Amino acid sequence: MTDAVSPAGDLESAKILAIVASIPLAVDLGRYDLAQAAFAPEIVIDYTSLWGGEPQRTTPAALMEAWRGLVPGFDATRHELFDLEARIDGDTATATAGVDGRHWIGDALWRPIGTYHWTLARRDGRWEVTAMTFALTREIGDRALVAIAAERAGRG
């Protein structure tokens, strides 16, 4: 039986929501070790609504390396999550959240807005993210900042 759980739900939903919420916060703080700890050993990452291409099967370490090659090039980032929800079905779960991702270089802002979808599995009593998808619904600002940030991060 599948249980729909709200943010004010039970203990297991609280654990799931804490794990998924930790990922963007950890990245904003430059704590890639903390973000990496939220993931299973192999993951599927899907940013196709933002970048095109195909979903990628990868490892948490490779994902962190990719993020390190971009995020530090911004002067600041802030990924605000809202409307977090979790659904648990035995040892698997899904979670969703709206996200407003703000990325600054100086006063210039790039702001992709959308929804994160996570799939999780419980292994050895601990929830791990096995898949993460970002679905873009709106974009504000200058996407060209991404190339600037990538260049800056590569020099850092």
UniProtKB/TrEMBL annotation:
InterPro entries referenced in this protein's UniProt entry, alphabetically: NTF2-like_dom_sf, SnoaL-like
Highest taxon listed in the record's lineage: Bacteria
Positions of the SnoaL-like domain: 14-132
Official protein name in the record: SnoaL-like protein
Species annotation: Roseiarcus fermentans
Lineage of source species: Bacteria, Pseudomonadati, Pseudomonadota, Alphaproteobacteria, Hyphomicrobiales
